[in-house]
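Sequence decides. Our protein:
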Amino acid sequence: MTDNSTDIRNVTVLGTGVLGSQIVMQAAYAGKTVVAYDIKQEFLDKLPDRWEWMRGHYAHDLADYSADKFDAAIARITTSTDLAAAVGDADVVIEAVPENLDLKKDVWGNVGKAVKDSAILLTNSSSLRPSDFADVTGHTDRFLALHFANMVWKSNTGEVMATPATDPAVFERTVEFAREINLQPFPIHKEIPGYLLNSLLIPWLNAAASLYVGGAANPEVIDDDWKVSTGSPNGPFEVYDVVGFNVAYNIIQGAQPEGSPLRAFADQLKSKGIDQGKTGVGDGAGFYEYDDKGKIVRPNPDWVVYRD
């Protein structure tokens, strides 16, 4: 059993994609010692470039940024392709692997065999219920969700959601841990797929995708209509670029039936984006093309259907 006095020093993050790498840096910048785990060394070899991309955003967005503090955060990060070794000393394990139930079950089954008895086990799953795969951990009392938003350092929400089996003391300690890594925690008292943020966000993104695949308008036009009409700073396709195509693709594949228009949209995300290495802001191109500061340069012509 874990209680609120548990000291959390060592954090392991499983998955170093767009959001996983941000979680690694979020914890390290807050002073935690972090192990970044992934299945292939080639994925880990991309992290130094990710750190430098984040450095520019940290410098721009955070009042407490300093080059020395950022360098110290990098020094607190180690990498591993050995899952058991990566989680063996962890006080907290945060999983940020693709949104696939079978994959999550496989990963957590192996983690559960290797972690110490006091470790808190957290999933960052975007749309799956934690209780759908809690049992495979063998530690259901210490398993729950901590959901991060993309651009973590700036959009620093931490949605904390327990399963019916989660120890209340673990839930409270996770809320405190979220504060320790500079998140604003949002406790969720009933388990629900999508938490609060994605329960609001995903239907909106799906509506925009349906308009696009239905041939209504180009992404830029849909975005501009939304922004002008509502005063919002971002349209849905700009948000897709921030979320990243891999996340959007996996959510749609898991939630939408074969033959649905949204599955057709997911197929386009893969063929035009993922397979081309253009999955959003982090790659410099998604529905838009971006400069090295993440500012939109122009709409990506690959996604333009109508030439107005």
About this structure: The CA atoms of residues 127 and 193 lie 5 Å apart. Confidence is low (pLDDT under 50) at residues 1-5.
